[in-house]
Every structure is written in C-alpha cells, then in structure tokens.
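FORM 7B: Structural annotation worksheet

SECTION A. Query
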Amino acid sequence: MRKYRLSEEQQAFSYQEDGTKKMCYYGRLSPLAILTM
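SECTION B. Predicted structure
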C-alpha cells in the first residue's frame, strides 16, 4: 500500500523527466507492463 503513495510521486517525476523514467516506474509495479508497452 505504501508503494502506491510512492508510485504517485514517482509518476509525477516520470512525467517531468521523460517516458524512460515512466517505463521504470511501470516496471516496478509490473515488469509485464513494459513488455505490453
């Protein structure tokens, strides 16, 4: 559950940086998400 709170902050950071960071953030939640993307 705590990961969800961090995910929100990380998501905002990913948006500020680039799609690369977004992929990393998604990979933490589910490595399969990167494959689907």
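SECTION C. Observations
The mean pLDDT is 57. The CA atoms of residues 14 and 22 lie 5 Å apart.

SECTION D. Sign-off
Analyst initials: ____
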